[in-house]
Model the fold of this input.
Amino acid sequence: MKLVICAGPATTGKTAVLRHIIKKLRDGGQLAAFLKIDVQYAEEDELLAREFGIPTRKVYSGELCPDHCNVMVLGDALQWAGKAGADVLLVETAGLCLRCSPYVDGGLGLVVLEATSGMNLPLKVGPMLSLADVAVVTKIDRVSQAEREVFRARIQEVAPAVRVREVNALHGIGIDPLLEHIRQTPHATDHMLLRGNPPVGTCTICVGKKEVGWQSHFGVVRPLENQAFYRGE
Amino acid sequence: MAIESITILGGHGKDGGEEPVRRIDLRMGDVVSIVGPTGSGKTTLINDIELFADANTPTGRRILINGAVAPAEFRDNPARNPIALITQHTTFLSDMPVQGFLETHARIRTDVGEPAESLVERTLAFANQLTGEPILVRSRMTELSGGQTRALLIADATILCNTPIVLLDEVENAGIHRSRALELLRAYRKIFIFVTHDPRIALLSDYRIVMRNGTVRQVLHTAADERKFSAKVTKLDDFLSRLRERIRMGESLTDLEAELEAVA
Ligand SMILES: Nc1ncnc2c1ncn2[C@@H]1O[C@H](COP(=O)(O)OP(=O)(O)OP(=O)(O)O)[C@@H](O)[C@H]1O
Ligand SMILES: Nc1nc2c(ncn2[C@@H]2O[C@H](COP(=O)(O)OP(=O)(O)O)[C@@H](O)[C@H]2O)c(=O)[nH]1
Ligand SMILES: [Mg+2]
Ligand SMILES: [Mg+2]
Ligand SMILES: [Zn+2]
Done:
């Protein structure tokens, strides 16, 4: 079984892209399983189960960073999808933590960005873009050709090694190259690793100390004027 | 790669029925119009061309360049893309200043030759010949008016992209100097494809692709007697343009009655 992790800001078209991928996998005789990871609300699992009759699930990350939640549940999820007879496990995640990456070595990492989002977005999404394999640019039907090309250039400035694929996810235009990327992805194994380095360890705020001002905290702290530093006890 | 021809291979319409015209070959230097009622699929047809459709769009059409499937690099590398498309959009969503936007586009659209600054300068000069109020390089793209947006898109496609194939979606709706635009465009030898409702542009074309219900119904070659009265249409159109411009500038039109009698 293969693993595809699809991340991107809200409403960029992740589900719309995955819907076309599910359809094309099915046309090629392959079964997709779908897992949605969201902070507090999602209904894609029910929609896609109804539409395609495929195995689907969702997980609410709640208090956890959604990217870390993804890592926690992925082992179980691969087993679940395997038992359900799936050929590909598609994971959709909101990727709300812009310091972490949700991708796994040995899986295919897709980041979905919309061409309508403004030219600075690629500079703001951090490892979610730079550690992806493919940046899928949606809503190309809503912008001029010139803007589409400049948006592509902005992505390549930040992430020169990431392949850019432009799609219209309403009409399913440009989806075939994504299927080719999935075809070239190796099968998932029992020992997969989170891609990239997680951000520096927790600060005392994370463990529940709520005082305002770095002077009240320990571990990695950050004054306004200086870089973060380690303040030991 | 030198572009000699584009071929459109027929697909199917909105109702799934087969497209009546199965093949159209456009040759270098051709000026073509796409005509048809609102919603008949004109924009969809030029989008198919721009996407180098290969039976992978909702129309099932296929587009060949020089008789063969287009190489993938046409779509993956803007510097290799032989097509510039001026879309129907009258707003930019980009939050960049005009200067920065054009410089970035210039850098990725051209491999060699002219430095980006001089390309940007020429592009703005071209655009400002088409607008009423000039575009300022320091404005943000999102601040441009509908007409300024279209003028900048035309200039970007013609000067900055300078591709052998140019697709234009309803340039006449832009409130720009349309006759000036046509005059400037015709100085170039390219394949021009105009989506249009404008009699002057339609008559200036070598042929018209007629759309209905999502399909190409027929291809009409501009007849010799159509060409004959095209000169008169041009005069009429120029008169109307002048009228429009005078209204824009807040002038009185009373002295134009005799002239109207003469052209009508
Ligand atoms: N061959 C086709 N098969 C399926 N859908 C089609 C086909 N051709 C056009 N359509 C659909 O019909 C709708 C209208 O098409 P389009 O926007 O191309 O019309 P148009 O002629 O450009 O109209 P306007 O003059 O208003 O700009 C679109 O939603 C498009 O996706
Ligand atoms: N015009 C256009 N709309 C799109 C495209 N892709 C997605 N959308 C729309 O954007 C909205 C959000 O899409 P969705 O897939 O739910 O986004 P998600 O939150 O990332 O999963 C929906 O209304 C989609 O129909 C596209 O390529 N073009
Ligand atoms: Mg979704
Ligand atoms: Mg249209
Ligand atoms: Zn995190």
In short: The mean pLDDT of chain B is 90. The pocket of zinc ion (ligand 5) is lined by residues A 65, 67-68, 97, 99-100 (CB under 6 Å). The first strand of chain B starts at residue 5 and ends at 9. Residues 85 and 167 of chain B are 5 Å apart (CA to CA).
